[in-house]
Amino acid sequence: MKILMINSYYAPNFHGGADISVQHLAKGLQQAGHDIVILTLAKELYDSTHSVNGVTVHYLGVNNWMSHIRNKDQSAIHKAIWQLSSAANIAMSRRLREIYLREKPNLVHTHILAGFSTKPWSVASKLSLPVVHTLHDYFLICPRGTMFRGNSMCCRQCSDCRLITQLRKRDAQDIAAVVGVSNYILQAHVAKGYFSGVPVCSVINNSIPDVVPTAAPKLPQGPLRLGFLGRLEPFKGLDLLLDAVSRISTEKVTLNIAGVGVDKYVQHLKTTWSLPNAEYFGLVDPESFLPEIDVLVVPSNYHDPAPRVVLEALAYGIPVLGNSYGGMSELIEEGKSGWILDLSQPDALFKSIEKLVDERENYQGRHQQCLQRAATFTREIMVNKHLDLYENILAKQGATM
Fold this sequence. Notes:
Blueprint: E1 2-6, H1 17-31, E2 35-42, E3 48-52, E4 55-61, H2 76-87, H3 90-103, E5 107-110, H4 119-126, E6 131-135, E7 148-149, E8 152-153, H5 159-164, H6 166-171, E9 177-180, H7 183-190, E10 200-203, E11 224-229, H8 238-246, E12 253-258, H9 263-272, E13 278-282, H10 286-289, E14 295-298, H11 308-315, E15 320-323, E16 338-341, H12 348-358, H13 366-374, H14 379-400
Parallel strand pairs: 1-2, 1-5, 2-4, 5-6, 6-9, 9-10, 11-12, 11-14, 12-13, 14-15, 15-16
Antiparallel strand pairs: 3-4, 7-8
């Protein structure tokens, strides 16, 4: 089977956890004996093709001068213009058609579509190519992909978002299948009238990274070592975590922070909460960061669909303190592989951390419980579910041809 996968980012241009998950899926499908081709956006203005770990990757030079690939710090007006110009990009349609005809895939599997808009769907439809789309974010509902504006989570779809995404909603009816990385994100779209005409809707979780399980760590006698790993942006809730930690004795807890973000916002965090027990590590590999903490805190201040960092922590036997928003609670087993809190409650994060400190002596069994939970998210499980989905779609297509 030949599968053409489309994602806005691909190695080495990673942006978030979804991009890593796409690469994991591509690798797994390739190892299962299938022919995988990737179509992604390039930072350069020109097109190029490379082999990445044996996978053919077509990098499309973005001819939209306000591309998010090259310029992430845009004004709101520029972002709106970029969204509309991406949707009306005739040159992109032509280049997509050329690649589809050259590669001749059995089906197209789309993921993050920022910069592509829904052009991959409309072009594939004209060529009678079935399309599977995986929901990693809220791009089809919200141009920002987060349903988070300013400093707060959106309770409903904004009027300007509804206007910009009308074409996306219409095009979404013509694909063959839609997959949610969590049930939450799938139902969030269905509730707004998306995919009403799509015959197959399913949930397939992302997979854990390839790691060698380690022995259960011995908890040190010093402070509880909390960790934050992710993008340093307002909707990820690091400010809430810093505020909570600032109210707890430095003898009881430390905080390791890994990730990058816009310089102005990062400097705001460091200036507002100048904590002696908080250290910033910048961009790091999870395998070097996670074994050095006791609990990973994921305080996302929006409906995070299914943060990959949760799976990464579980794979290393690290319990997770996450919130009830979005699909995070679908990954964490309350009281076993982690704890779920409700950030809408006053002082919820502060109280949860205090409780973790007080009950620290009960952590010794958590490591094995996390590994057991991680075993339900292996790459083999994810790949097999996708292959079943692909075969089902192709069988239906053959029956109608």
